[in-house]
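Please annotate the following for my students:
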Amino acid sequence: MKALSQNRRHPMVGVALLLLGLLLTGGLYSLASNINSASAYSQAEYTSADNIADGEALFNANCASCHGVGATGGPAGPSLIGVGAASVDFQVGTGRMPLQMSGPQGAQKPVQFNEEQTMQMAAYVHSLGTGPTIPEEEYLDTDHADVDLARGGDLFRVNCAMCHAASAGGGALTRGKYAPSLDGVSEQHIYEAMVTGPQNMPVFSDTNLTPEDKRDVIAYLKEFESQGHPGGASLGSLGPVAEGLFIWTAGLALIIGFMVWITSRSN
């Protein structure tokens, strides 16, 4: 009993409990963030006069130098009239805009504006002309009862894999352009990319892929992402070609090294 009492009073017990509490708190916060990040703002907030006014001020201070006052376009940027709220939320929400430098395409980088500011700029641009809106939450719910993972996989391989690769790891295109990896991209941003066609990506309207089809594709990607790489290093997720090349190169290097070692020993 005395030894048990001493163990309970050990200072490391408090540290262990503190670490356990932090892990549980962080896990719950991450789960709540993932649930709420899909649709942080209602559709009504994108038509609020106050949000539109605040978005216009942000746009004039940060975007008008390229896209022009009133988003009518300029020498350094296209017109944004009619691109819709979804386009702004994707480009700004993934850090692609504002551009860091001129290049074949805008690269993803740390986000410059918070979620509220992004929503306000999207509301302002949306007020200038109709375009794709922020997706409804039901089409971002990958646990929906009607989700069909097998169909989502088929749709992805037919419509997306030629650029993003079957593993969704991305791939090179022409003239320095590329299809980015889809690993870690939020459900909302994947949906917005499909309806707006950013950079070199084609637009998948509801005529091409219905909202339910898009949800199936997103659910498939998230299921694929959750599986990880239980076999070890992914090697670009290119399958047996990359694995065979690695084995061949490494094996050939070992053989050459062994031959050099034998020759040096004989001399």
Q: What stands out?
A: The first helix runs from residue 2 to 8.
